[in-house]
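Sequence in, structure out.
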Amino acid sequence: MDKPTGPTERPCDACGAAALVAFSEVGDLPIETGRHFASEARAMASPVGRVVLGRCPRCAYVRNLAFEATLVDPAAPTDMNLYHSPTFRRFCSGLIVDLVDRLPVRGARVLEVGCAQGEFLKELCAVAGCTGIGYDASYAGPEGPDPSGAELRAGPAPLDGNLPPYDVLVSRFALEHVDDPLSFLSSLRRQAGDRPVVAHVQVPDAGYDLATAGWEVIYPHVSYFNVSALCAIAERAGWRVTGTGAVFSGLIRYVELSSAPGAARETDDLGTPLDLGLDAARDAQLAALRGFDARHHRMRRHWAETISRLADEGAKPVLWGAGSRGVQLLTFADPKRRLTAVVDVNPAKWGRFLPVTGHRVDPPDSLPRDVRAVVITNPVYRAEIARSLRDLGITAEILAA
């Protein structure tokens, strides 16, 4: 890695016990990865921002040291909706059943910070017979109470002390976007007060993504948490860690928390803190981070060469999936638009253009039937995409980037 320039030194946001050390100059990336545009020209004029990754040698937390919060508009119209995928819907429904079985959700007051378009919270309220309030700056639906028991509000959650009382906190894919994640979790813990609040927090698992190609490294992600970093910041914010795990084939990491007084971590019957394997996870993550820069840039070159070769061979390669991971792959590997098409199952994206590269998104049923190569960036969806290709009468190799 070339030595990064600019303001790159800061203490670790998670554990606070060490300074972050720069280890990868990723470069200039699209800022508006969740947006799509009506015109190619507007898409190609979408701004970029610099990403310089730094790691904590004590807990393995990772942050974009070059992040500038003023470049990101949290209220900008974004579309990260994954509910058009049957695979994702099944995952969310299964997660809700699991939460209701394990946590005191039935009849509770649920707060969801970062509720997107409210699908998860509405289903949770319907299944658990609870009430909930959800906040999201990108929420575009009708505000107010919903028949499910959920109330949805457009705008960020008021973390200044004006939140309504809550028994259960849910936050999915929000913490990694926050410029000050410690203050975010600390404020939520403070507003829980003396009530027995439990929390379920999800983030993309950096233990997976930074050990592979790194397609989840996007500008809106300020922080990258593996299990050791996620537990460190939760405990530092005053929560008690009661459990953690990886779901969705290892792509998502969750931590479960309690406001109950006592040790920072759940203990066994003898009062010994639970062994969550955090030291081993930290060491494995730090080892993966040492190889990340070379691995990431090697994969960028590999996929640029692969797409060009497939196009030259007449295989008509396409990208299936125009989410943030797909946008990153296009930025790194197909700036000259050698792909025959980019498709997505979200109808809101059809006929629209992706940031910086200007690729147009089309519906899957528009694909030429002689496509022979389909590139995907998330292997979780391989089986779903394979079924769709069979239904379309397309015989193509699926290549997972």
